Amino acid sequence: MIDVSDVTVRFGGVTPLDGMSVRFEQGICGLIGPNGAGKTTFFNVLSGFVRPVAGTITAFGEDLLKMVHFRRARWGVRRTFQTEQAIEELSIYENVAMIHEHSKMKGGSRREDVLGAIEFVKLEGDPYAKVRTLGAGQRRLVEVARAVVGRPRLVLLDEPAAGLPDEETGHLREVIRGIPEHMGAQVILVDHDMSLVSAVCEMTAVLDFGRLLASGPTAEVLRDERVIRAYLGTEEVA
Ligand SMILES: Nc1ncnc2c1ncn2[C@@H]1O[C@H](COP(=O)(O)OP(=O)(O)OP(=O)(O)O)[C@@H](O)[C@H]1O
Ligand SMILES: [Mg+2]
Questions:
Q1: What pLDDT does 104 receive?
Q2: Residue 238: is its pLDDT beyond 60?
Q3: What atom in ligand 1 is closest to the CA of residue 37?
Q4: How much is the average pLDDT of 175-182?
Q5: Protein residue whose Cα sits closest to atom 26 of ligand 1
């Protein structure tokens, strides 16, 4: 469980998070909101790239903000990014092994963990194929494999379905659904695809201008008038 209390981030005159408070229960939680609402900034705070000027975050009883960022990876915070991070000239295996190397929260042997993560995302074919030979959906699965390898505790997925055709989003949906049970990790999913969010997230929180607009069971939140007005009713939803 992740408890966020009054978190504020400032970049010069911009306040991308403005006293954000919310609780993410275990399992898979959604985090939605318009472009620029502060979703990625919040992930940057959790993973340690951005330091808030105020607020606290407790993750499974530990004070996350007191942990330096490289310790957070070892402790079990993992993420995907809005832009692809996998290195094209390396193989799928090497790309996943790189993250395993840094995380030091290993379950079994490196080989077992890396192949286990690749198998978990159901990336078919040769694990030693170079990432540049893969299609968009498969590359996205490499990003997810990097986020679940070893023993993650908290997996942050930043728009994993963006731009994918329906069939590949369907595959990704099943993979994400399996993360709590098979990888033992809590998931926070940011995405603009509301059918994906509805299908996998028990609860969803909505950010607007860096503040929590609503949170609760996903179906209720998506029916909330304020959420419809601030987000779902706009054309920005992809
Ligand atoms: N490094 C930075 N310096 C200055 N402003 C920033 C920086 N990073 C983000 N911002 C600003 O903070 C606000 C929140 O951005 P953020 O990327 O967190 O939004 P988001 O909810 O992830 O949006 P999207 O759905 O488009 O990905 C925006 O106004 C953005 O321009
Ligand atoms: Mg973002």
A1: 65
A2: no
A3: 21
A4: 97
A5: 35
**40-64 confidence digits (pLDDT tens):** 999 999 999 999 999 999 999 999 9
Q: CA 21, CA 17: separation in Å to the nearest integer?
A: 10
Pairing mode, strands 2-11 and 14-24:
antiparallel
Pairing of strands 186-190, 203-208: unpaired
Are 189 and 200 in contact by the 8 Å Cβ rule? The answer is yes
Nearest ligand to residue 237 Cα: 1
Report the pocket of ligand 1 as residue ranges, CB < 6 Å: 11, 14, 16, 33, 35-41, 82
Q: What is the pTM of this model?
A: 0.94
Nearest ligand atom owner, CA of 238 = 1
Place of tokens 């939140």: 221
Q: Is 11 exposed, middle or buried (0-12, 13-18, 19+ CB in 10 A)?
A: exposed
Q: Which domains does the chain have, with CATH numbers?
A: 2-232 (3.40.50.300)
Token pair of 39 as six digits = 């979703």
- Distance, CA 191 to ligand 2 centroid (Å)? 9
Kindly give the distance from the C-alpha atom of residue 139 to the centroid of ligand 2, in angstroms, as a whole number.
Answer: 19
**Span 83-91, average pLDDT:** 95
* pLDDT in the model for residue 106: 54
In angstroms, what CA-CA distances link 125 with 58, 122, 144, 156?
Answer: 40, 9, 16, 26
